[in-house]
Each structure stands twice: as structure tokens, then as C-alpha cells.
Amino acid sequence: MRQPLSRKEKPKIDCSAIQKILLIRLRRIGDVVMTTPALTILREHCPEAKIDYIIDEPYRKLVEGHPALDEVIVLPKKLKTRHFLRHIRTIRKNTYDVLLDFHGGPRASLFAFFSKARLKIGYKIKYKHFIYDTVIPREPEEGFIHSVENHVNLVKSLGVSPSSIPKPSLPPGKRLEAEKIQRILRRNHYLGYKLITLHISAGNAFRDWGVDKFIALTDLTAGIQDVKIILIGGQDDRQAEAEILEKSTAPLISLVGQLNLRELKELISVSSLFVGPDSGPMHIASTTSTPIVALFGPTLPAHFAPWGAQATLLEKTFDCRPCRQRECIHKDFRCLRSIRPQEVYKACLTYLQCS
């Protein structure tokens, strides 16, 4: 049986001898999507290796069936001790040659620590970097680095030198998922129109543009010929959904809380434009050929812009950006909410008039 490296032993990497690789990224939507360019590169350079991926239950559809992966290890929503121990036993039996921790969070680092992988690679994070045999800085000494590049840097530590970084990618959609979207469009007489998929929230107040602004934007776009708007969001967006549907003068349909992640990708794929804040759905949109108008508030495009996508990124300059999204020092979330609906509308026109 292969022995793990001792703490004093310098890792020696022979890519041609790598047989089993374990990847870890537990949450959330955008973060998982941004690991997929690294998966593609890893598969290209290790075509014969078995590559497995640990992920949380809510996000499994983002990677299950991905052509770069062999097996997806799914953790339950509430990871109890017995679940953890069972997965650890399975991971140890697999005797992985290499483990790449794309996450670095508490649970991910525990899986890495107990994995018995021969070579463990992760980010240089305070109190955790001792777990890994190779650590990669998450932030450059100067400037910024995109999250996609961070993940690719973990792969590069294996001696891999990709000529370029590909677009993010999701598993191929299933026939039933595509048929569901077509049924919805047919039932609402939306076939043949230019569709705007409009994401009306992003999970917290810091990335919430405001219902009034979404209403104003839908009113503006109502005047564009042959354009229809579809609202998307999660279950937590029901109140915003109801207010927009009630007050907007534009003809709308809402699929808020009605689509799984792959169905969402199918919808965006047949749309002419995706509009929304920096969010998981925005990164799902980056895996398609659909143009994006993205609104950035507390986060920076330098870190999280939709990688490889045709996109217009709207942002305002404030000294408090970026922030940790724990407290708005101005109490009004001005970094995002100072973006005017007219600015978003103008950006939308660029794509809708030429599509």
C-alpha cells in the first residue's frame, strides 16, 4: 500500500503515475462552477486517472455527469458524525494519489486531513495550511487574482502547464430538462421571442439590487420589440417575485423556485440575455453562449467576473469595496444600489438590438 508523505518529505510529483485524484469543493453554486475549468485541464493532462469530486447535496447537479469526472461523492445537507466517518472510510479505501482542496473550509480541510491521500494540495490558509503537502497562496502580493485562476493554480502545482484556461462547463443537460423548458415557453407563448432571464436576488442584502429597481428595469424593457422577460430566483425570493409581478407594467412570467440547476442552465441557454447580480446563476450563465449583464456591488469582477463569457459588468467605485458582507458601513448597500436601472437597460440594448 502506498504510504502518505511525512511532514519532512518533499513531495515528488510524477503526473504520468497519478492513478486516483480526489477534488473537494463543498459550496456554493458559483464557487463550484468556477472549479470546472480546472477539472477540464486536469482531465486533459491526466486522461487515464480516476478523478472523483466531493460536493454538498444541493449542488450535485452541477458536477454529476461532468465528462472530466468519474465519481461524485455527495454529502448530506446535515453532515452528522456517522456520515463523516462513513465517507472517510470510503475515501481511505480508495487510496488517492492526489487530493486537491478547492475549498479550504472547516469540513473540506477535515476530509483532506483524514483522507490519507499521498499528496494533499490546498490553499495557504491560517491554521490550516499544515494539513497540505503543497500550499498555494490565495492572494497575490499585489493586485487581484480570479477565483478560476486560483483553482487552476492548484492543478499547476502538479507540473501541469495549460496553454489557456477554458470556459466553465456543466454536465450535458438531460432530454427531460430541455423538454420542460420548451413546454414552459410554449405554454406561455414565448417561443420565437428574445428572452431575458432576469435573476431577481442573490441570497443576501448586500447583493440585493432592490425590488423597485427590478420593476423599473422591466418597465423599460417592455418597450423593446419582440422581447419577453422571465424571472428566476430561489424560494427566499417569493416576496420580491410577488411585488414585481404586481407592480411591473411589462408582461412577465416567473419561474422563481421552480427550476433545478440544470433546468436553469437550459433556460439561460435558450435566452438572448441573462441579467442579474454577481451570483450562482450568473456563473451558470457563463457556461453558456448567452451574453450577460452583471451587477457587481460588494464583490469585484477581478475576483468573480463570469469567466470567458460575453458580458457587460456594471459597478460603482467606493472605497469600501470589496467588503466581507457582514455589515454595510453606510447602512444603505450603495455599492450595488447606486447602479441605475437606466444603466442596466442601456447595457441590455447592446445585446438585444443585435441578436
Largest sheet: 6 strands, parallel
Any idea what the CATH architecture of the largest domain is? 3-Layer(aba) Sandwich
Report the span from N to C terminus.
58 Å
* CATH homologous superfamily grouping of the largest domain: Glycogen Phosphorylase B
Query: What's the total count of β strands?
Result: 12
Shape: globular
CATH first level of the largest domain: Alpha Beta
| Regions with little confidence, pLDDT below 50 for 5+ residues | 1-8
Give the CATH topology of the largest domain: Rossmann fold
Q: In sequence order, what are the helices and strands, one letter per element?
A: EHHEEHEHEEHHEHEHEHEHEHEHH
- The number of helices is 13
Strand content: 15-25%
Tell me briefly what this model is.
It contains 13 helices and twelve strands.
How would you describe what is shown here?
There is one protein chain. The protein has 355 residues and is α/β, with parallel strands linked by helices. It is 33% helix and 16% strand. It has 2 domains: 15-156, Glycogen Phosphorylase B (Rossmann fold), CATH 3.40.50.2000; 175-352, 3-Layer(aba) Sandwich (Rossmann fold), CATH 3.40.50.2000. It has 13 helices and 12 strands. The strands form 2 sheets. Strands 3-2-1-4-5-6 form a 6-stranded parallel sheet, with helices on both faces. The radius of gyration is 22 Å and the shape is globular. The termini are far apart.
What topology emerges from the helices and strands here?
Layout: E1 20-24, H1 29-33, H2 36-45, E2 50-56, E3 71-75, H3 81-94, E4 98-101, H4 106-114, E5 119-123, E6 134-136, H5 147-156, H6 175-187, E7 194-199, H7 211-221, E8 227-232, H8 238-247, E9 252-254, H9 261-269, E10 273-277, H10 280-285, E11 292-295, H11 301-304, E12 311-314, H12 334-337, H13 341-352
Parallel strand pairs: 1-2, 1-4, 2-3, 4-5, 5-6, 7-8, 7-10, 8-9, 10-11, 11-12
